[in-house]
Amino acid sequence: MELNTHNADLLLSATNKSHYPQDDIPEIAMAGRSNVGKSSFINGILNRKNLARTSSKPGKTQLLNFFDIDGQLRFVDVPGYGYAKVSKKEREKWGKMIEEYLTSRENLQAVVSLVDFRHAPSQDDVQMYDFLKYYEIPVILVATKIDKIPRSRWNKHEKMIKDKLDFDPSDDFVLFSSETKHGIDQAWDAILSKI
Ligand SMILES: Nc1nc2c(ncn2[C@@H]2O[C@H](COP(=O)(O)OP(=O)(O)OP(=O)(O)O)[C@@H](O)[C@H]2O)c(=O)[nH]1
Ligand SMILES: [Mg+2]
Q1: CATH architecture of the domain covering 8-192
Q2: Per-residue pLDDT for 84 more than 70?
Q3: Would you give the distance in Å from CA 72 to the centre of its chain?
Q4: Domain residue spans of the chain
């Protein structure tokens, strides 16, 4: 596939099915806890500064944001989970929105599941990974913020993450930093192999 990744734009934002684009363009969704770096990952691999809006304040992304890439592929930035300061009602709304998208969207080819490389995955991270495995949605596991960990400890952290998730070795695993741009090529290889 010849893909001009510079030709990328926010297409639309959605809260439910009726807003989703109606066509057959493949989609890759980004899921992970609030502040893990989902929007930064999208910006990083598209080499854009602020296409997907990022923030040091968690809970920035509230809607399903569909990004068009050269009319041939879409990224879907999913609001983060695990942000403590939301009401129970908000959390339920989030749960419905994300479940509806992940379980019924035929365009969905894979989910980039992001976890923070610095820490063992949270219960929410484990639940998300289990959910994706249960629904047999292909997973690309991306560990973010690797620039914050010295290289000498990378193996140890990778093992910690894989152990906690009971990681399926047939899934892709990518070490990523939006600061150093480490992992961009590997992330693209994984994404393109799914569409
Ligand atoms: N050092 C470092 N910081 C990062 C990296 N990725 C993201 N960040 C920072 O982490 C914060 C959150 O990043 P976002 O991309 O907005 O996170 P998000 O997952 O989209 O967050 P929500 O939209 O709230 O769910 C920002 O301050 C980013 O600059 C990374 O690879 N390395
Ligand atoms: Mg975001």
Answers
A1: 3-Layer(aba) Sandwich (3.40)
A2: no
A3: 19
A4: 8-192
